[in-house]
Amino acid sequence: MTKPDTAERILDIAEKAARTGGYNAFSFREIAAEIGIKSASVHYHFPTKEALGEALAGRYSDNFFKVLGDPQGAEPAELLKRYVAAYGAALKQDGLMCLCGVFGAEIADLPPPVARATRAFFERNLDWLRQVHCRHGMAPEQAEKAAAHMIAALEGAMILARAMGDAALFDAAVARLS
Amino acid sequence: MTKPDTAERILDIAEKAARTGGYNAFSFREIAAEIGIKSASVHYHFPTKEALGEALAGRYSDNFFKVLGDPQGAEPAELLKRYVAAYGAALKQDGLMCLCGVFGAEIADLPPPVARATRAFFERNLDWLRQVHCRHGMAPEQAEKAAAHMIAALEGAMILARAMGDAALFDAAVARLS
DNA sequence: ATTCTCCTATCTATCAATAGGTAGATAGAT
DNA sequence: ATCTATCTACCTATTGATAGATAGGAGAAT
Asked: What are the CA-CA distances from residue B38 to residues B10, B17, B33, B41, B43 (Å)?
C-alpha cells in the first residue's frame, strides 16, 4: 500500500494555504486538522514554523526547476515558451499564486531562513533565464535585463489576474513575452 | 498648532506595516503603541480591522492617482514615464512594496471589503493606462494588453527588487517599458 | 522463541503571547 | 448638556511551542 508520508502531506497543505494568503495563512493546527492528527505531531516533522516555511520554499523551487529542465538543453525559444507556461500552469491548474511571489511580497517580515530560501528561488530564476537568453545570442547586459523583466512580468501577471479574478488578464499581460 | 489627526497617523502606521508584511502585519495594538494610545482608541477611529484595511487601500489608491494626474492631460509619453516613476518612487523613496500589490498577492484571504478596494485599485490602473495608450494611437485591443503588461511588470519588479534586496533590479526589469 | 532496547510517530495537556473586539467610565471642549 | 477622544478592564479565539506519556515495530541479545 502507499504509505501516508505525513511530511509530504503537511507540505502540500501548507503550500496551498501559503500560496493563497502568505506566510501567516498556514498554521500548525489547521494543517493537523486537515490531515487528522494533532498539531504537536506536525512539530515532530517540522520542529518550527520557520523550518516548515523554509522546506516549503525549497521544495517549491526544486519542483519548479525540475519542470523547466536544463537551460542548456532544448532550443532557447522552446525553453522560454516552457518558462512562461510554467507560471501559467501554477496560476490556472492550481488556481494559486506563485509561492515565492507571495513570500517575496512580504519578505521583510519573514524569518531569515524563509527569506533566504525565497531569495534563492529568484536567484535560480535569474540564472536560468540569463543562460537561456545568452544562448539566444543576447549580450550579457541585455540578458540580465530581459531575465529580470520576464520574472517581474510573470509574477505581476499572476497578482493582477488573481486580484481581478480574471485569468485572461494573465495571458494579456504576458502576450508580448513569448 | 497642527492637530495630531489620529486617524491619519493610524493609517500611516498601518500602511507602512502592511506594505512590509501584508494584511496580517499590522495590528491594533502595535499601531496604538506607536502612537502612544490604547488599542481601544484605535477602534474608535476604525471600528474593525476590515474597515481599516479598506480605508488603507482607498487612501493609497487616491494618493496614487493624484500623483498621476488626468490621463487626458499631459503627453502620453510623458504620462507613461510618470507612471513608471510613481512605482519606482514607492519602492525607492518609501523602501516599501505597493500596498495593493501585497494585498493582491493574498487577495483570496482578505475580507471582502478589502479585496474590493484592492480590485478597485487595479481597475483604475487598467483604465488609466488604457486611456493613455489609446491616445498614443494604439488599438483598444492592444491597449488592453499593454496596460495589463505594464501593471504586471511594475508590480513584479517591486517584488523581485525587494526579494533580492537590490533596487537596481527594479530598473533592469522595467527598462524596456519607458 | 522470547525478551530487551530503541526508534518512530503519534497522543494529551498545557503554556505564554498575541489577536480583534467590547462595555462602560472619564476628562475636556463646545 | 452633549460630543469627541481617550481610558481601564476584560473576553474569547488563535497562535507557535513544549513536556511527557503511549503504542507499535525492528533488531539484537539472551
From this structure: 12, 18, 7, 5, 9
Query: What pLDDT digit, counting tens, does each position of B47-68 carry?
Result: 999 999 999 999 999 999 999 9
CA A39 centroid distance within chain:
26
Which secondary structure element, helix H or strand E, spans residue A155, and what is its range? helix A140-164
Cβ of B4 less than 7 A from strand D: yes
What are A44's three cell numbers?
A: 515532530
Residue A116 to chain B, least CA–CA distance (Å): 9
Quote the minimal CA–CA distance from B131 to chain A in Å.
Answer: 17
Hey, is the C-beta of B117 within 8 angstroms of any chain A C-beta?
A: no
pLDDT tens track for A15-63: 999 999 999 999 999 999 999 999 999 999 999 999 999 999 999 999 9
| pTM to 2 decimal places | 0.95
Which stretches of chain A drop beneath a pLDDT of 70? 1-4
Cell of A116: 533566504
Residue B20 and residue A108: Cβ atoms within 8 Å? yes
- Measured from the CB, is A20 under 7 Å from any atom of strand D? no
Q: Which residues 6+ apart lie within 8 Å of A78 measured at CB?
A: none
Distance from residue A33 (CA) to nucleotide D19 (C1'), in Å?
Answer: 22
- Which cell goes with B68? 498621476
Q: Evaluate if the CB of A4 falls below 7 Å from strand C.
A: yes
